[in-house]
Write the structure tokens for this entry.
Amino acid sequence: MQIRIELPGDVFDAQFREADFRQRVRELAILELVRVKRLHEHEAQEMLGVTRWQLVERMKASGISPTEEVFDNIRAELTRAIGTRRARVKNDKSPK
């Protein structure tokens, strides 16, 4: 797919090159597709030609939580919930 954006030519110069802008817009579009779950992270990594850790850095910079963080958060929530439940059960069983 190709997207065409009409911009005035004078916005680009030696300090702000059109090719750099084009690459950045492409990266942002791919990251947005990851955010809305239209692309998997490994697909984005391949399309961008970056390492896993470079992708993770770019995702975080764009406010997207990488899969590892999401799973770590779920695991931490489950651990807290299990601990709370165990404490409640232990307190219910103690003599009063």
Q: What stands out?
A: The chain has four helices and no strands. Residues 36 and 81 are 29 Å apart (CA to CA).
